[in-house]
Amino acid sequence: AVGGFPSDVILGEDMSVAARLLMAGKRVAYVADACVHHSHNYSVMEEFRRYFDTGVFHARSPWLLQTFGGAGGEGLRFVRSELAYLSRHAPGAIAGAMLRTLAKWLGYKLGRQEARWPLAFKRWCSMHKGYWN
Hints:
- This protein is an all-alpha fold.
- The protein is built from six helices and no strands.
- α2 runs parallel beside α5 and α4 (72-89) runs antiparallel to α5 (94-112).
- The protein is globular, with a radius of gyration of 17 Å.
- The two termini are 30 Å apart.
């Protein structure tokens, strides 16, 4: 009904389809009894690269943020919550969490500005290097 999954995005094809479905008057539902396990054990550099790609996706799909807004406020709430939890339960993990947060933030910001960067730099920053071919 909305053209299927786009083939020209670096990632976020599911978000793109869900957004187009919502814009077409359809609904997206949370199904509590659905069973799925989706997990990544990314290094700090992999976090940076994934968020770079997310920034590229948002830079190349401005309609998405214009229509639905960004998640900046939610991200800040998550960081505050994570730091509060770690301060109570694992204070030694705070430095690592802050390093990951910085890597994500920097990757995303660089990705949002990808039009400024040379191709070699974008490939280096990206998790999905084949996208740049």
